[in-house]
Design brief:
Length: about 375
């Protein structure tokens, strides 16, 4: 393994906000209902202070780099006030500066009770919104336990655009309980026609530890799921969207933050349960913060940094699991640069995948073929 040079690797920052008004029955994210559906100002301030203390323990990992992108995810990060973010960014930038054109994304819910006016978030430097719409169908929104209506969802996109956000992602799920092809396509149509510039289109998965796992809803049969996938893709392509990752569709530039994850870049991570990855000269490390908000708030920040080195034998799979999700893959040079390993060690595996037409026959790029994307799990298994 050769020495790594962290300075050549972009550094992002993930901030986790662990609260929601109510827990959705399908959701396995580290999100917790707030008492009375409202985040108190005291708790907001206590948490923001804890985030800054947490960041101080990671400052040294920057190694001279500026922050390339920030993603504030949750939970429902829009429960925190715009003013709260203004204070937070000032504190963080004093420790590690942000790049001039740093992309800052905020995940926001469409329910109007859950956020300040969007213009206020834009004013404090947030320049990309990711709206958790999930569906525009009233029955599906009820089944999904969402607290917003279909009208709220439409007006959230419109308000975000009117407020001046040029980059608006809409999260939609498909394969919803008893969903028909027409309903799934109608959801895409509303997102497209109301001006989403990016769509994250996820197939609903039933996760352990969720209400849907315990009381399974009736999901569409495989044939319907396949048709939704095929026709949804055709619809998005016909409307000028480019599919650049398994579930990510863009009409504008890609999300730099997510791109950095998929290109095996580095990211600091603050907040309850947040996951980070950093490169040091001797290796690549992952870490995870204490998961429950109350434990996170109770602990000394340095104590809840659980660090784990990615072992040499696990590195090819870890790298490919991210890189090959991208439709265009990554430049081959990124492999040695970001893992410290020689790509030639994988000649046999890659050669065989190329022969089976699952990876592109291109020495400068590591990418799956269209067929390889269909069988992504088997492609990845080859790197285990
Ligand atoms: C971190 S979640 C939170 C976003 C935001 N709190 C919201 O729900 O509006 C990000 C996205 O993951 C997707 N998601 C969550 N649970 C899922 C599941 N079980 N299957 C598929 N997608 C899921 C949803 O589209 C959601 O918007
Ligand atoms: S609002 Fe989002 S994060 Fe919160 S429970 Fe629902 S899906 Fe999960």
């Amino acid at each position: 393994m050769t020495d790594l040079t962290p300075q050549n690797i972009p550094l992002s920052l993930y901030i986790h906000m662990p609260w929601c008004v109510r827990k959705c029955p399908y959701c396995d994210f580290n999100s917790h209902a707030v008492p009375d559906g409202k985040l108190s100002l005291d708790l907001e301030q206590e948490y923001l202070l804890a985030l800054v203390e947490d960041f101080k323990t990671q400052e040294d990992f920057a190694q001279g780099r500026k922050i390339h992108s920030v993603f504030i995810g949750g939970g429902t990060p829009s429960l925190i006030s715009a003013q709260g973010y203004q204070w937070l960014f000032t504190q963080l930038k004093a420790l590690v500066p942000f790049e001039q054109d740093c992309e800052i994304t905020l995940e926001a819910n469409p329910g109007t009770v859950e956020h300040d006016p969007f213009a206020d978030y834009l004013d404090v430097g947030i320049n990309r919104l990711s709206l958790g719409v999930q569906s525009f169908n009233p029955d599906h929104l009820t089944k999904l336990g969402r607290i917003h209506s279909n009208d709220d969802a439409v007006s959230a996109i419109q308000h975000a655009k009117q407020a001046g956000f040029q980059r608006v992602n809409v999260d939609l799920m498909h394969g919803l309980p008893e969903q028909t092809l027409e309903q799934a396509l109608y959801d895409l149509k509303l997102a497209v026609e109301n001006g989403a510039t990016h769509i994250s289109w996820y197939q609903l998965t039933i996760e352990p530890n969720t209400v849907f796992f315990r009381t399974q809803p009736i999901l569409p049969v495989d044939d319907v799921l396949e048709t939704i996938q095929e026709q949804g893709e055709q619809y998005l392509k016909a409307n000028g969207f480019i599919n650049y990752e398994v579930s990510a569709w863009r009409k504008e530039k890609p999300s730099s933050h997510n791109l950095n994850y998929w290109q095996f870049g580095d990211y600091l991570a603050i907040g309850a349960g947040a996951h980070g990855k950093i490169t040091q000269a001797d290796g690549v490390y992952r870490f995870q913060k204490t998961r429950l908000p109350k434990d996170y708030l109770a602990k000394v920040p340095a104590e809840h940094l659980q660090f784990k080195r990615i072992e040499k034998q696990d590195m090819p799979f870890e790298f490919m699991m991210n890189a090959l999700r991208l439709n265009e893959g990554v430049h081959a040079q990124m492999y040695p640069e970001r893992t410290g390993l020689n790509l030639s060690d994988l000649d046999q595996v890659i050669g065989s995948l190329k022969q089976r037409k699952l990876m592109l026959n291109d020495d400068t790029q590591l990418a799956c073929t269209a067929q390889g994307h269909v069988f992504l799990n088997s492609v990845l298994e080859a790197f285990l």
